[in-house]
Specification:
- This protein has helices at residues 3-16, 67-79, 116-130, 141-154, 164-181, 218-229, 233-244, 249-276, 284-299, 302-310; strands at 22-24, 40-47, 50-57, 86-90, 95-99, 106-107, 186-188, 197-199, 205-207, 214-216.
- It is an alpha+beta fold.
- The strands form 3 sheets. The protein has a 5-stranded antiparallel β-sheet with strand order 1-2-3-5-4, with helices on both faces.
Length: 312
Amino acid sequence: MDEREGKVRMRAGELLGATVDNCESPLTVLASPAWRGVEGAVWRASAGGRSVIVKHYHPDTAFYVDPSAAIAAARQAAAAGAGPMVLAEWPADGMFAMEDLHQGWRAGGLQDNACATTRANIIAAKKAIQSGPALGRAGDIFADIRRLHDHARDLKSALLPKNTGAFLDFADRAEAALSALGADRVPCHRDGNTANLMVGPDKAVKLLDYDMAADSDPYEDAGTYLMEMHEREPEARAGFEEWFGRFDEGLFQRAMTYGILDDLRWGLIATGLATRSDRPTLEFAKYASWRYLRFEQNAQRSLAGDRLRTLR
């Protein structure tokens, strides 16, 4: 047993009121092809027939994750019915405990994209978060991209794409276009990854991982969702209408611009981890290359300029 598992066992035992008799990971940690369980080690700790899920953040994610803010957002999401109940937290340890959704629940995946009921429940959960009180943490995707690029560049050995300058130029043009329009700010999940949800009985949904959650433009929330859930733009257009109940070309392009930029953000995150992480079995560089590829496909062609001219 290593030190981290020992700490999880101790905290879970305190919460359950008994010595933990079993502590195991309920998932396979991956960086590629799906980003699953990367930010923190996830444990199912059991004692006396009861169990909890404990998430213990990895120190190598500190350049983009604030555990205290993520835990606070998870609590707020749980209060809105959008996420699992948070049972306890130990901020000094970068650790918190959630209810164990094990009976009839499973991890989400790309296969859930095909189910209209599941999609509707994901949207409802994200909207429940948006309707709640402010998180008190400002979300700015453009500031994220600048900070993450600076971090990767300062690592010296980070393998950034040769055309990173062109990537950042698109982000600058998008920022100018969106800043001129202004935006409302609401609490948002800001994570479209289908690995970050649980699907339960009757396709019920609970959202996981609030590491990116912040008060931001609600169209960023929609855009990250659309980019993940729909492989092609015609389906994304239908997905926009599922979310908002009607279609608006300018607002659709606003959402899609955020979704495109999210690929750049996550490419930079994965580049940083590929360089600094001590977890060599996770394919961070491979994941980064995939996110950069999709970003380039969407941002480095003439349609990208049309998006920026059309968004509102």
